[in-house]
Design a protein that fits this description.
This protein has about 290 residues and is mainly α. The chain is built from 14 helices and 2 strands.
Length: about 290
Amino acid sequence: MKSTLRNPTVYMLFILPTIMLYFLFFIYPMLSSVYYGFTDWNGLDDTSFVGFDNFVKAFSDANFINSIKNNIYFILFSVFIQVPLIIFFAILIGGVKRFQGLYKTTVFMPSLISTAVIGILWGFIYEPEVGLLNNFLSLFGVETIYWLADPNWALLAVLITNAWQWMGFFIILILAAILAIPKEMNEAADIDGTTGFQRAVYITVPLIKPIISVVIMLSIAGAMKVIDIVLVMTNGGPIGSTEVMASYMVTKAIRYSEYGYGTSLSIIIFAFALVLTAIYQLVFVRNQERVEY
């Protein structure tokens, strides 16, 4: 048995099936996408190589530029509105003594529900005539708002729905970091007479910065690949006001059978996500080094 465990071939035999599956379902599709991104292909006929024409077309396509802007809105909303709310609610739940398990289960529940169900549920909430939101706002004299049919409101409606679905998942992540803080530190803060706000700002948040960084990075990555909630709620409408890069890619590839162009869009999305994540990581690491220094 010892001689068998020392044989590298044994380990290779164990990991070979995983490597094969990884190559089959990840590496090969990715390399195929790179190839088709440089072709003009409708999914049926023979491919014709067009070089960088698809990429030039993408950055001169007004609809695709609009989808990039909407993805940026998703990122800004996630980082500057969603993440602070996540930290706020995580600190609140971490500070309660009773029914903490109930609160954790409640906030995490939306993350377990299918995006299709979430989209349909919030579609009823946003319904102009009988929807819960408009009925509530009418109590304050607000006129009927066509949330998903008005270009001025549709993107905000989708942003709120997407945030509601995923905030609970990130709250649990940050809450785990908060509960891991040694109790002695909070007890010492109580002895010093600090308020709950001071404890959150000067003790809790600085100690959980690494997990906050992870949450921000995941939020940026999620905002770059968001598609399902858009397709379910608005399908990119009205008049492209909620179109994001991934939904526009699906529209061009599936609806218009421009598979070559759609594949080039997927490569651009991947590059954007990679660059944004790398930039954030570099900035965060430098800030951490400065703080430690």
